[in-house]
Specification:
The chain has about 325 residues and is α/β, with parallel strands linked by helices. It contains eleven helices and eleven strands. The protein binds 6-O-phosphono-beta-D-fructofuranose.
């Protein structure tokens, strides 16, 4: 029989993403609704190791649903990667009478949670929070939708200046291993080309495509480049390559960077975070452990954590085709 849960802890870990606060709020309020105690852990696994905890009630999460970042702070903990670090974290949890842990983060954070569970049998539950949308077991991670809106807004603004000057812009967006942000925001922003890690376009095809754009009468162009793209050149080298190998292009580069991780979460992310928090807590109360909550075909579903951390979510091939057709 699993131990009855009377007190849960929640932490945010890894890169922050818009919607993390809404998820904290949902976890805390679902605990309050079911009359169990809730503790917020500061600085992710670092705070777990140090016992940096704060009792939270329904009122302590007021006014945060619309805030970017995470009120609990976040960290990438080196110490939690060691057995000694995890032992300290376990001791802190036991000392505070905590019966289960909700981890809001990405695959690195879930890997830590899974190892922790395997070593100490401590109940864990994951809520996927990362702008990259690279987790298996959910169509959307928390913050992805907000980041897309931020990127599209930036592309629209860059388009204004690109078309005024007849320029070609390379715009780098986040996505270390996957091209979800680049592909979706690229289509929505009307990009001429989108370079993503999953598909190596090759420099020749990029040049052909830009030549075709020019011949078809386009006076300005936008190329979206995911940071993890495999073309073999970074965005500044791409600019140099086009400068050296193509006539008549005035090229500029814009790296959007960490602005993509900030800002008030979209309506979609707030609702998603609220649903995920409820599902995470209620699943733990039902005795489930080692799962990640996710959105699958519009419903809240559980995926075993070890499946969620296996590989990366796949790019939608239909979107690739749509993008090709749209850039005609
Ligand atoms: O949140 C994920 C991510 O946005 C990646 O796309 C990016 O490579 C990384 O974070 C950068 O994070 P940091 O600057 O925190 O190391």
């Amino acid at each position: 029989m699993p131990k009855t849960i009377k007190k849960l802890a929640v932490l945010t870990s890894g890169g922050d993403s818009p919607g993390m606060n809404a998820a904290i709020r949902s976890v805390v309020r679902t605990c309050a609704y079911h009359k169990i105690e809730c503790v917020g852990v500061y600085r992710g696994y670092e705070g777990l190791i140090d016992g940096d905890f704060k009792e939270m009630d329904a009122r302590s999460v007021k006014g945060i649903i619309n805030k970017g970042g995470t009120i609990l702070k976040t960290a990438r903990s080196k110490e939690f990667r060691t057995k000694e670090g995890r032992q300290k974290a376990f001791d802190s949890l036991i000392k505070a009478n905590i019966d289960g842990l909700v981890v809001v983060g990405g695959d690195g954070s879930f890997t830590g949670a899974l190892i922790f569970n395997q070593e100490f049998g401590f109940p864990v539950m994951g809520i996927p929070g990362t702008i990259d949308n690279d987790i298996v077991g959910t169509s959307h991670t928390l913050g992805f939708d907000t980041a897309l809106n931020t990127v599209v807004d930036a592309i629209d603004k860059i388009r204004d200046t690109a078309s005024s000057h007849n320029r070609l812009f390379f715009i780098e967006v986040m996505g270390r291993d996957v091209g979800h942000i680049a592909l979706n925001a690229g289509i929505a922003g009307g990009a001429e080309e989108i370079l993503i890690p999953e598909e190596d376009l090759g420099l020749d095809r990029l040049v052909d495509s830009l030549n075709r754009s020019k011949k078809s009468g386009k006076t300005s162009s936008i190329v979206i480049v995911a940071e993890g793209d495999k073309i073999g050149k970074n965005i500044f080298q791409l600019k140099d390559y086009i400068d050296e190998n193509m006539e008549g292009y005035d090229v500029r580069v814009s790296v959007l960077g960490h602005m993509q991780r900030g800002g008030s979460p979209s309506c979609f992310d707030r609702v998603l975070a609220s649903r995920m928090g409820v599902k995470a807590v209620e699943s733990m109360l039902e005795g489930k452990t080692n799962y990640m909550v996710g959105l699958i075909s519009g419903k809240m579903e559980l995926t075993p954590l070890d499946n969620a951390i296996k590989g990366k979510s796949k790019i939608n091939l239909e979107l690739l085709r749509v993008s090709d057709i749209m850039s005609t």
